[in-house]
Write a structure and sequence with these properties.
There is one protein chain. The protein is mostly helical and 266 residues long. The chain folds into 2 domains: 100 residues, Multidrug-efflux Transporter Regulator, Chain: A, Domain 2 (Orthogonal Bundle), CATH 1.10.1660; 145 residues, no CATH class. Helices cover 66% and strands 2% of the residues. A two-stranded antiparallel ribbon has the order 1-2. It is rod-shaped.
């Protein structure tokens, strides 16, 4: 006859596990002998090994008792069901691992591959990394909100980036980042941007300039992030507004305000 410690050692579990199985009603708890100790026979070892094997295979303890008492066909059916559940969990864990792996991949976090390719194309064009990061941060909520529209948007972006003038637009934005709000160069950049955007819009239509179709409140939310991340952008948009265009995420024509800027060289 075995003590609880010896039983646990033979079955390859801990004493705490044996007591837990007692509490769950999985392993019968023998009466104490005249010395006050519980003694276990070889049958208890066999039963405990079966319990341990099922538990280690991922069978919930709530079902272990059912399986221990099942007939051969019922046992086989239950095991097949449990196996299918485990396969599903494995697939889900693999998806989780893939998502976690993307954490180390920078732009790939929460972004479709076609957006990542777009960001890499901006880098290849020499666009300032700060602009690229702002683009990335803008595309994350866009892709989460309207994933079905990402292919359409990206097709248009690829078309636009093939135009050297669009690349120039991004480079001009990059140049604006290192100017303070009162730097006269910002006004000059606003002149260049306004002229460029107007020319493209006149040639291709306003929808070519703004192809997102976003509701103004959502576009304003994204603009707020841009302005907080790139302070010169706010001043640049103020200057653009005086030249007939407004918005960062969603460019729109407006009536030009009277120009009171000084020193922009016009």
């Amino acid at each position: 006859m075995l003590t609880i410690g010896e039983l646990a050692a033979y079955a390859g579990v801990t004493v705490r596990a044996v007591r837990h199985y007692h509490a769950k009603g999985l392993l019968p708890e023998p009466e104490r002998d005249h010395s006050g100790y519980r003694r276990y026979d070889a049958g208890a070892v066999v039963e405990l090994v079966r319990i341990r094997t099922l538990a280690e295979a991922g069978v919930p303890l709530a079902r272990v008792r059912e399986l221990l008492q099942a007939g051969e066909e019922e046992f086989a059916a239950a095991v097949a069901e449990i196996d299918e559940r485990l396969r599903g969990e494995i697939r889900e864990r693999r998806r989780h691992r893939a998502r976690i792996a993307r954490l180390a991949a920078g732009d790939s976090l929460a972004l479709p591959q076609e957006v990542v390719d777009f960001l890499d194309r901006l880098r290849a064009l020499g666009v300032d990394e700060r602009i690229v990061r702002v683009e990335r941060d803008g595309w994350i909520p866009l892709a989460a909100r309207s994933p079905e529209r990402v292919p359409e948007w990206m097709a248009r972006k690829r078309e636009q980036l093939a135009d050297p003038r669009i690349a120039g637009f991004y480079r001009t934005l990059s140049a604006a980042l290192d100017h303070t709000d009162d730097n006269p160069r910002l006004a000059g950049l606003a002149d260049e941007l306004a002229a460029y955007i107007t020319r493209v819009a006149d040639e291709q239509g306003d929808c070519y300039v703004d192809d997102t179709g976003l509701e103004p409140p959502f576009a304003e939310l994204l603009d707020t992030h841009v302005f907080a991340t790139l302070p010169p952008a706010r001043r640049l948009i103020e200057l653009l507004t005086k030249r007939g265009w407004t918005g960062w995420t969603k460019l729109e024509r407006v009536d030009p305000a009277p120009d009171t800027d000084q020193g922009h060289g016009r």
